[in-house]
Amino acid sequence: MKVRFNCLIMNKQRIIESFMLLAVMIAIDSKAQATYIVDGIKYYTNFESQTAYVTCKFPIPAYKGDIIIASTVAGLPVVGIDEQAFADCDEVTSVLLPETIQYIGNIAFKGCKGLKSINFPSSLKTICTDAFKECSNLTSLEFPCTLSNIESSAFWDCKSLRKISFYTDLLMAENTFFGCDNLDSVTVYLGNKTTIDQSYYGLRTARHITLPEGLTSISSFVMSNMCFNSISLPFTLVDLGHGVFNTCENLDSIIIPDNVKTISKYMFGDCKKLVSVTIPDAIDSIGDYAFSRCVALSSIKLPDSLKYIGSYAFQNCKALNELHLPQKISSIEDYAFDGCSSLTSLTIPEGVTTISENAFALSTGLVSISLPKTLTVLESQAFSNEYKNEDKLKEIFCYAPIPPMPSKEFDVNMGIQTDPFLFRSYEATVYVPEGCKDIYENNRVWGRFAKIEELNTSGIQHKEIDEDSIVGIYTLRGERVQSSNHKGLFIIKMKDGSTKKMLKN
């Protein structure tokens, strides 16, 4: 019996010790973590991390009206809005956040359909997934320079949102603003980064974007496939990557800053509403497909500094009806102006030595072509017509003493001899330098034309003519020329009623 009694005493002592340990643990936990209600808002404190944050309160929805978040609770800074803290509180109308908030958690304000305004303090670093999803009454957002990350779907379907501003340092998921269909204006401020190197596809519905002075480059394709109709680029911009504005189908006008030297590949490809482009004088090259399928572009002023136009650069610019090529260009690349069916007259400047394959193929509206004396290579199908299409070409002025020819005699792919004028009717009159008629008539390409004439220089006016005294400029067939920049032999009608013959080189 004595032994059994001692065992019972020992067991009882162990039970007491266990309860004392549990009490200590509870005390420690209660000291480390606690909840508080301040002005109706529930906060959770963590004394180990010395922080507090807003948490959800039951029953949901528990909050409504104008919400003011405290900056401190129990002496601790309030650093965050916890997951689902205000989710589906559709009677919340405004939120004022203190300058201590660093993050806004997942689904924190999701479905707050009555929320019209919220400030984002300069302490904020992260807005988490779905944080403001379906907040359909928010109209404007101004993000601080400290905000570094907005996660997926954070502002999904905020249909009343019209204005956003943020800094270049901000990273955002591509679907951040999905469904924000009424977004009018996006303003980007300069942060620590002077380059935009992330996709702005999350802002694709914005109608106008303003980029900051101090920005120096935009990386390839980061603004492609967006819906804006205008964008303001800063004068400090130096580099625009490939395809930056590719398939921006609503873009109608743009001014390229003076410091940009190159229009890169694909830059404005498929910008179907683009009608106005201001190109600076410093541009020296236009890359492949740069303006391909800009079907509304009717004219473009190319600077004298331009040396290179890439393949397919203006392919299928069907409205392009006026083209003045600068003097520094030495070649016209493959398909560069293929399908420019509204061009009626074309002057290739002196200095051009090569016109590549299909360079002006399917430019079915051409009536007059002027080729320089420097031209030596005229590749296959350079001026080909559409099969069985009416040939409108009436005249070709070729100033080269030796007929320009393809570099290869046989087209392996088509199984025929190379022909720069494939599917043309050869009914156009070809004007060639004096003394060169025979060599053109005996040439396998040029000899197909039914009529070859030497340029008759008799009676040509060699003195400069005052443009103010000119009433009109006409081709030898009597058709009025709309621009004075074309080369060839023309009839000039003067104000005094006289006419003069003029050869423009």
Mean pLDDT: 88
What is the beta-strand fraction?
Answer: 25-35%
Indicate the overall shape: elongated
Q: How many strand units?
A: 38
Oligomer: single chain
Q: What's the number of helices?
A: 2
Report Rg: 36 Å
Descriptive report:
A hairpin with a 4-residue loop joins strand 2 and strand 3 (51-54). The protein has 505 residues and is mainly β. The strands form 10 sheets. Strands 1, 2, 3, 5, 6, 8, 10, 12 and 14 form a 9-stranded mixed β-sheet that branches. Strands 11-13-15-17-19 form a 5-stranded parallel β-sheet, with no helix packed on it. Helices cover 7% and strands 25% of the residues. The chain is elongated, with a radius of gyration of 36 Å. The longest helix is centred in the N-terminal third of the chain and has 31 residues, at 2-32. The protein has 2 helices and 38 strands.
Q: How would you concisely characterize the structure shown here?
A:
Helix content is 7%, strand content 25%.
Quickly list its features.
505 residues, 5-stranded parallel sheet
Topology:
Layout: H1 2-32, E1 33-38, E2 41-46, E3 51-54, E4 65-68, E5 72-73, E6 76-81, E7 92-96, E8 103-104, E9 117-118, E10 126-127, E11 140-142, E12 149-150, E13 163-167, E14 171-172, E15 185-189, E16 195-196, E17 208-210, E18 217-218, E19 230-232, E20 239-240, E21 253-255, E22 262-263, E23 276-278, E24 285-286, E25 308-309, E26 331-332, E27 345-347, E28 354-355, E29 368-371, E30 377-378, E31 395-398, E32 410-411, E33 416-417, E34 429-432, H2 437-441, E35 451-454, E36 470-474, E37 488-494, E38 499-504
Parallel strand pairs: 3-6, 4-7, 6-8, 7-9, 8-10, 10-12, 11-13, 12-14, 13-15, 15-17, 16-18, 17-19, 18-20, 21-23, 22-24, 24-25, 26-28, 27-29, 28-30, 29-31, 31-34, 34-35
Antiparallel strand pairs: 1-2, 2-3, 5-6, 32-33, 36-37, 37-38
